[in-house]
What we know:
The structure is a homodimer. Chain A is globular and about 65 Å long. Chain A has helices at 13-24, 26-33, 58-68, 83-89, 107-118, 128-133, 135-144, 162-168, 183-193, 198-208, 216-219, 222-236, 255-263, 325-342; strands spanning 2-9, 35-43, 50-51, 94-97, 122-125, 149-150, 174-180, 246-247, 266-277, 280-291, 304-310, 314-321. A six-stranded mixed sheet of chain A has the order 3-2-1-4-5-6, with helices on both faces. A six-stranded mixed sheet of chain A has the order 8-10-9-7-11-12. The longest helix of chain A has 18 residues, at 325-342. Chain A contains 14 helices and twelve strands. At the A-B interface, α2, α8, β12 and α14 of A face α2, α8, β12 and α14 of B. β12 of chain A pairs antiparallel with β12 of chain B, so a sheet runs across the interface.
Amino acid sequence: MKKINVALLGFGSLGQSFAKLLLEKKDEIEKIYDTTVNVVAITTKTRGNLVDAWGIDLERVLNNIQETGVIPKNNEMMLQRNSLDVAETVEYDVLIEMTPLELAAGHIATNHVMAALKRGKHVICANKGPIAWHYKEIEALAKENNCQFLFESTVMDGTPVFSIVRDNLKLCKVTEIKGILNSTTNYILQGIEQGKTAKEVIAEGKKRGFIEANPNHDIEGNEAAAKMAALANALMGADITPKDIDFTGIKDITKEKIQEASARGNVVKLICRAFNKDGSVQVKIGPEELSKMDVFATVTGTSTAISITTDLMGTMTIIEQSPEIEQAGYGVFADLLTIIKGM
Amino acid sequence: MKKINVALLGFGSLGQSFAKLLLEKKDEIEKIYDTTVNVVAITTKTRGNLVDAWGIDLERVLNNIQETGVIPKNNEMMLQRNSLDVAETVEYDVLIEMTPLELAAGHIATNHVMAALKRGKHVICANKGPIAWHYKEIEALAKENNCQFLFESTVMDGTPVFSIVRDNLKLCKVTEIKGILNSTTNYILQGIEQGKTAKEVIAEGKKRGFIEANPNHDIEGNEAAAKMAALANALMGADITPKDIDFTGIKDITKEKIQEASARGNVVKLICRAFNKDGSVQVKIGPEELSKMDVFATVTGTSTAISITTDLMGTMTIIEQSPEIEQAGYGVFADLLTIIKGM
């Protein structure tokens, strides 16, 4: 049986849901792919780091976090190593970057990714920063070192968006992308349409765990811009960063505007678009009024949607219906299976 | 450069659209996959057959059909061979079955497919008959002979349905399928909703080329049942034929029923469902009343849609927006690229 050593940078809810999948599917991975997955490092920002070449007991770690909030303290603990040290020195085959998104320029995550690729290691990146801000150089480095660089979970969790174009739309050229990609803003717009104020919806969303403590990056459109830069770079051959994107969030959308739209039989949605214009890829993000008969009008709650138009296959729309954190974990898991299959 | 020899059984609009793609993408296939595709046989029911080990000039054949309606007569022509002879004797690497669907039991196409697999040849099947009626035995034969057996274009043209589960939802178990898979009935229901009679819509659809000369198989639900048997067999591990499916078409749907639904804010759609019940896969097809806010309510014209629910990824909905014949040709083309990649 083959063994694949994996280092996990970041171990929040995404990392934990991925770890649960690894445990749950251990036997199937061994049976179908003739491979054991061995987690040799876990790093966190505030809850300690673990390094163990013999393999970390994920069940113990998950239980400990559940009970105490931190990673178990014991022999393997190597606090002196930060996550970049781990990326640069630990012996692993695949680095999985799951640290929190920094919207400014994605430097920390990018450094992790580049450190691994320079060592000839495969990389799975669940952090959209590197793909939004530094895609071209990372992609070039991955090619140069003959490494896989996968990042399915950065847009629409585990819904195959990048891999559908790669695996299932072979030789198709993506000419247009349209999406509702930020569920926080979509949820807020829906709440306002139902007669609540933005403040009320945000408070409710926070309580239910859909909306982050500080949702400004969602509301202002930064999060959607990072996703669209990632999509445009990876699927349309663009070389842009979020700075190049013309984006407006939903800050200026009032109850009155939404009610006026509703009276016309329409809804307001934050629509992301990428398209070719004058020989380059343009990206626009802003609120649009859609007919209630439009497929995007039916995307509510925490669901997200994307339409991908290609030269050979016309327009295909994919909707992820009411995802939970497990679906993001699956995105990382599917990338890992792709790497295992290719080894 | 590798060379792959391909035999095309059936050369109607699907076969021609596939052949056009082969011509159009010749250089890219050579460049990206280091492979030349050589068509060594084309068979048709009434328009002659061609066999040429040196490779048939597709451009000449397409032009000739356009101008005269038949395949060009010349040296390569071997009228004495029928399509089963070709499947059994011609030297090819991949058989592409594109003969018309026989809804009774799919015998002719199944014989072609089995003949190729027995000889250790890969098979692409654009005909849903074999997958609906004889999936288990064909799949077993393919495994035994270490051959690929692909059939992406049988449901929703080239939209990745089978390949998404195979390639992108690795280790996921499909627990439910829901779809609007027959565009003829969907188009008729939409027309009735707009105030036309079924007869008027059918006449209009025939004129515009959406609806076949004899749409009874669509209206009675047979065509949808063949697709659902294929999906249940290939994606849910079922072992069923269309005979095992509880299906109703749209024959009993009247203008009044649709208008009553409309007054309730609903639409009527022919919904296909497959699900696990009492340890086996059940399939049901029949008209259902849906809220206008339902994503399936937005599927109109010639569009089709499928929701695939899995244990690990929840529910994902894929919509093919207003396909043309080119999209079906792409389904066959994508299967061929999958085989080329794996060779």
